[in-house]
Design brief:
Blueprint lengths: L1 E4 L3 E7 L14 E7 L1 H11 L4 E8 L2 H12 L3 E8 L5 E7 L5 E6 L8 H6 L1 H5 L3 E4 L5 H14 L3 E3 L18 E2 L3 H8 L6 H13 L4 E5 L5 E4 L4 E4 L12 H14 L4 H15 L17 H4 L1
The chain binds adenosine-5'-diphosphate.
Length: 303
Amino acid sequence: NICVVGSVNLDLNSYTDRLPAAGETIHARRFTTGHGGKGANQAVMAARLGGAVALVARVGQDLFGRDALDHFRAEGISTTHVTPTEGASTGTAVITVDATGRNTIVVSAGANGLLSVADVEAARSTIESARVLVCQQEVPSEANRTAMRIAEQAGVPVVFNPAPVGAGVPAEAYPLASVLCPNEHEAALLTGLPVRTPDEARTAGMELLGRGARTVVVTLGAQGCLVVTRERVEAIPAPDVEAVDTTGAGDAFIGSLAFFLARGEDVFSAARRATQVAAISVQRPGTQTSFPRVAELSASIVD
Ligand code: ADP
């Protein structure tokens, strides 16, 4: 079983001819909603592969919160620790995409910003009994730190995705990360080094190991990922596919990585499989809508 501490958002997407100017009202050609939030995305990915997943999160006591809870139940995710929050709205991302694909995005953290140390303490036994804990940075860092400390004391490995990277990663968080999993942008920002190639990712990965992370996995988009441990470095190329929408690729990767680690595989094997799953997600539109279910995967990916 896998415990994910993290964010829940509803994405509200308007597709327009152009982006509106200040004070202007324009009409959208199309509107869609989508389930999002890095925590929710990673939880859904792990659940679709067959993982028993518990999510520790907050939603609002509003329509979006009720919808998110129904959605998690339909995905088979435990919602015992997804707390509806009085007086708070569910996290949202209000997105406008113009005809050329440019976008504006307004994120409202809402209830995600209220996830507390007490919430995480209430989920202590869930964390302690997990095979893997997964955290990102869309909820308050004290909540994350508490979860990672509980996991460490119980000997539960922690996958830490430092996204969004914002002001960086608190120094105390590095030694709590069994697997630190930044994308190239995050790795560059955390280290101040260029991270465009597997070679550059190796240097950045070594730097992050030096800060206390036990393993670093840098995702490199169409170039796959690089797994860096003190003993061994392995570049894992992504399959050559036609990408139509890479939104959520990182979350597909992390959710899959957590699932395969929880199944008992080493990080190299887990990262190879996660690379295959993420490559499927980029060939389909949307975020969670692009995440495959285990029944769709070839035996070479899951067996
Ligand atoms: P993020 O979504 O955080 O920006 P990346 O872009 O690094 O993360 O993508 C995460 C993973 O998704 C990559 O490591 C890779 O396995 C897969 N991926 C992303 N883009 C592509 C692509 N164009 N072709 C194949 N795989 C991809």
